[in-house]
Amino acid sequence: MSVILLSLYFADSPHEGEHTMSKRYLKLLGALLAFTLVAAACGDSEGDGDSGGSSASADANFSDERCQTNQDVGTITFVTGFDFAAAAGISEIIVADARGYFEDLCLSVDIQPGFAPFNGATVIEGAAQFGAAGSFSELVNNNVAGDGDLVALLHWGRTAIEAIVLPEGSDVTDFAGLCGGLVGIKGDLPYSLQAAISLSGAERSCFDEVLLDGFDPVQHLDLGIDALPVYKSNEPNTLTGQGVSFTLLDPLDFDVPASFAIPFTSQSFLDENPTVVEDVVRALIKGYEAAAADPEAAVADAFALIDAAGNPLFLAQEAELFRWQTESTLIADLAPSGTGVGIPDANLLGSEIEAMVDAGVFGELPDWESMINSDIASRLYDGTTLNWPDE
């Protein structure tokens, strides 16, 4: 069953949209994945509520009472956006768990492999308490489509992780230049690229689209398409490794407001468990810092889980190292000076949603401001230094 699910997933990108076939795949996979995660979460939730706590030593910043409060919530579930890949939004929680950061804060966290955007529905339904969205637009769409109360807690990527690969010799120099060409689509065009096209003054209807099978970018370009949507931390590495020349049309170069790797919870869980959410965010930030400081060790932590699960996606350590180094570099390069990394930027995230409205992704402007909590991450920093017990 897992092989069938993964085949459907990779035949159809994790970005929902208007394409009929894409939506059929997404609904099918979403239903099956949600069932699987609900069953897993129910199995994990049995037992005493305080079974997941640790005996972390208390100090002035972390009292015995707070430790007990965190223990009392029991095991909480975090569902990832792309299996156990070494990606932003995933690596930091894997490292935080592997290094004992959650245990230090009297938290018990169960990391479940998932696929965006279905993990948003999983949290909305209560089968998990935390997840990672591929972008803020994805989180907002989950709320709009599912009448949810998801709220962004961290904002790692301040640009698009997606881009367009152009074959060698292409004369396209901007997103409007895609008009009149043939674009290969894996499920649907990612949100950031829809915004880039709209902001260029063009419409998506100006070019033809073809649904692609599989996920090999070399084979896709061999089909003679004029453009291929990719993840900057994935397919370019494959193409370069196989000696295929290309150019990259990057939304970052055109100041397209976009995001990637957005950890979230539900507002209802936050209201009921404020210290738990705050300390999960604290551990995620510390996990990110450790993963960014030692990428090889972060990938090793990821592969401890990947290999234990049988590596169903056939992930390779070299490729995952490229993924994490690419994404963590983007995060570091675009982090505002003098500000703690990962604090949500409401203005930037709002501009992203406004661009989505212009692109027709949303019929009207959603109440996006209620879907961001910048206060938690902000109060965890002293300038750019994370406040951590015993430090």
Topology readout:
Layout: H1 2-11, H2 20-45, H3 64-72, E1 75-79, H4 91-98, H5 101-104, E2 108-112, H6 118-124, E3 130-133, H7 136-146, E4 150-152, E5 162-167, E6 182-185, H8 191-199, E7 208-211, H9 217-222, E8 228-231, H10 235-241, E9 246-249, E10 262-266, H11 267-272, H12 274-293, H13 295-308, H14 317-334, H15 346-358, H16 375-379, E11 381-382, E12 385-386
Parallel strand pairs: 1-2, 1-3, 6-7
Antiparallel strand pairs: 3-10, 4-10, 5-8, 5-9, 11-12
Helix pairs in contact: 2-6, 4-12, 4-13, 6-7, 8-15, 12-13, 13-14
How would you summarize what this structure contains?
Belongs to the NMT1/THI5 family. Keywords: Iron, Metal-binding, Pyridoxal phosphate, Thiamine biosynthesis, Transferase. By secondary structure, the chain is of the alpha/beta class.
Notable features of this structure?
transferase, five-stranded mixed beta sheet, 391 residues, pyridoxal phosphate, alpha/beta, metal-binding, globular, single chain, Thiamine pyrimidine synthase
How many β-strand stretches? 12
Count helical runs. 16
Mean pLDDT: 87
How would you spell out the order of helices and strands? HHHEHHEHEHEEEHEHEHEEHHHHHHEE
Radius of gyration: 20 Å
* Overall 3D shape: globular
Strand order of the largest sheet: 2-1-3-10-4
Strand content: 5-15%
Secondary-structure-based class equals: alpha/beta
Ranges where pLDDT stays below 50 over 5 or more residues in a row are 1-60
Largest sheet: 5 strands, mixed
Distance between the termini: 47 Å
Assembly of the depicted chains: single chain
Helix content: 40-55%
